[in-house]
Design a protein that fits this description.
The strands form two sheets. A two-stranded antiparallel sheet has the order 1-2. It has a two-stranded antiparallel sheet with strand order 3-4. The longest helix is centred in the C-terminal third of the chain and has 22 residues, at 103-124. The chain has 125 residues and is of the alpha+beta class. The chain has helices at residues 11-21, 29-43, 81-87, 103-124; strands at 55-62, 65-72, 89-90, 96-97. The chain has one domain. Helix 2 (29-43) runs antiparallel to helix 4.
Length: 125
């Protein structure tokens, strides 16, 4: 037979779980979304500025998980121009435009900052 005996209360555990359930640790996601926009606009190669000025973001919550997604709406009748710049693309005349990795270098520090801030809130909850 197994017997479990406890003393004290679960107040701190219940407070922690309540804080996690309240979504309070995600209160700064809009701020991070806007920071991402600012970083992407500054880093996007500019010929006309249309692609750099076409960044948006959305925040989705699904099944208790949050996701920030950055989008570029400059399509010029095809795929997003930012994707073509980031990954390179063929031209209609048989040439190839070399990729320019402008997204990863500017977004990696932002991802690290998001991770650090959320983890800090979890530790202090």
């Amino acid at each position: 037979m197994i017997e479990v005996h406890t003393e004290g209360s679960f107040d701190r555990t219940e407070q922690f779980l309540s804080t996690m359930e309240s979504d309070a640790i995600y209160s700064d996601l809009d701020n991070f979304g806007q920071q991402g926009i600012d970083l992407l606009r500054a880093a996007t190669p500019k010929r006309t500025g249309r692609t750099a000025g076409s960044w948006t973001y959305t925040i989705d919550k699904k099944m208790g998980k949050y996701r920030i997604t950055w989008h570029n709406t400059d399509t010029e009748g095809g795929p997003p121009v930012a994707i073509l710049i980031q990954y390179g693309h063929a031209t209609g005349t048989g040439g190839y435009v070399q990729a320019i990795d402008f997204v990863n270098p500017v977004m990696a520090p932002l991802f690290a900052a998001i991770n650090e801030q959320v983890w800090e809130k979890v530790r202090n909850a």
